[in-house]
User: Fold this.
Amino acid sequence: MDNPEPYNDCRLEHFTDLDEHKTRVEYLKGENIFKQGAFAPYVIYVVKGLVKVYLQTGFDKQINIAIAKPGDFLAFASIFGENVHTYSTQALTTAEICMIEKESLKKILLDQPEFALQITSKNYRQEKHLLEIIKNVSYKQMRGKLASALLYLSQEDFLKEDIFSYLTRQDLADFASISTESAIKFLKEFEKEGMIALNGKNIEITDAKLLVGISKNG
Assistant:
């Protein structure tokens, strides 16, 4: 199934019953939207901008697990009784989001099966991505981890947003679950091997086939 088209704005035009049960908020780049372990009173819908999704794994350690884009829901598990956030989110760019009352959205899902199927499809793809992260962390060597992270961040939707201009090398390392020093080292190696081209913060994939091989073989 293709990705469903994102809704144009906070009104979720096809579901006007939500109009009285949501609040639209703008976050500046770098602002936290919600924190892991905090109470989860709302489902979050991304209207504009990009949002970094990450797990806090220690006092000063984290694993970046995804980037949410317009049309994505966050804290969706709260509909099914998950009362605290299981991950943290931060505005990677200036972002506009909707905070939607859980019970109101749940009613819409029950009343609108096509919409519910679209959301289920999105969640299935997100689950596959999370399983890939587990495989990366558990089994792959550092070069494979970094290759997987670069391939994820080089999806067409992200490149349209010039994603690498918003990411530090620390961010990139956190997507690969390796140290910043290792990320810098292997980026230079990948460039020498002709897989990528570096220009400041920008990273261009020049040989995706080779990079996929590194990712698969770990």
